[in-house]
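TEACHING EXERCISE
Course module: macromolecular assemblies
Task: Read the component lines below, then compare them to the predicted structure of the full complex.
Student: A.B.
Group: 4
Components provided:
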Amino acid sequence: MTRLKRTKIPQSVVKRLTKYLTFVQGLRMSGVEWVSSQDVADALGMTSSTVRQDLSHIDFHGISKRGYETRGFHKVLAKVLGADTVWNMIVVGAGNLGKALALHEEFPRRGYNICGIFDNDPRKMGRKVGRFAVQDIRDMPRFISNGKIDVGIVAVPASAAQSVADMLIIARIRGILNMTLTHVVAPKHIVVIDSRIVANLFELSHAITAAR
Amino acid sequence: MTRLKRTKIPQSVVKRLTKYLTFVQGLRMSGVEWVSSQDVADALGMTSSTVRQDLSHIDFHGISKRGYETRGFHKVLAKVLGADTVWNMIVVGAGNLGKALALHEEFPRRGYNICGIFDNDPRKMGRKVGRFAVQDIRDMPRFISNGKIDVGIVAVPASAAQSVADMLIIARIRGILNMTLTHVVAPKHIVVIDSRIVANLFELSHAITAAR
DNA sequence: TAGATTGTTAATCGATTAACAATC
DNA sequence: TAGATTGTTAATCGATTAACAATC
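Instructor-supplied answer key:
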């Protein structure tokens, strides 16, 4: 039974672990059984030193001359990232983005189950999004406590982001995926991760502009 | 006329500039005319030192005792991030996520215009996504060169990500927004920014798990 | 065995924070 | 003026890379 290490893994390392997970999963699907730190580094554009240093945060070991067994590698990465368990999520905001996320097959395929979608617009309530009917946001707190919901995805207009986050926090959600541009404030026992697509577009247009 | 500085701005700084832009835009909308580095830091959960250090990369200056004028601050951030110009984008992949992105009002509102959506599935071709008909991916290269397309959003299954990216690269796209989990390889004159929502979910479930 | 590759320590590099003189 | 706040230099902190002994 693989045990997690006590020490906190830096966020920079966690971000790379998500890349390793995807890469190693691909290798397994191709039937590759062993991979070296250099292989990983080459595929993902980094140094083998970084790969080995990152793995030192994890209770998993390679073998000299052979590298890492993909099976165990994949398994431990999934465990460390929480990708080996099932998570219950709700989507708040039934606009185009919220609806798409509620329908995104990739999430349940990976154990991130959508359990409901909420909005505050009465005209949207009851409308079907796949197998879900849009629910009144006022029913959200009860839904969270009844359904053991772990994660709330915030896909509302920026102006409503903080108040929706506050509702989620009061309802004792464990984590928030913030899809809005707004910075969301939360007590530190609640995890907030930003997934701000427009901010990524800013980064992109900056880099294009800056390239000469 | 505001001039951009010569030196390259570190990516860590650029990421924070996107937060400043959103925050300062909100201030302007509320009619606030001046903001101090401490105000920004408090709102976004960082130190005032970081804010001032970040601004040293930019050709914009505050005034002792008053801080920064929001109008100029907003303007220079928009300029540095390329948010003050119009960008032409296409979406590749007409699944739920691709369709939602093609419909996302936030993008054109901010100058990131969707110009078309492509897929390789003949059953999807011709179908309407808002005002767009899904086009054959084989017509993509010509569309890019004819339409002065700057950015390609890759919203296809992970297995197709690299080959789609290669098509975009050959067609001389300037930047790629990668929505898939896969690492995308590109020559260094092509900007690739990852916006991997599932990876953000991994980060989230890791953090929830790691919190004791 | 010989040599490839790990795991870890040490060196380097970069990013964040602290401190403070300049200044409005 | 007095004091708040900038801009920048220096100090600290953390992350990445290099190097190499251990080892399979």
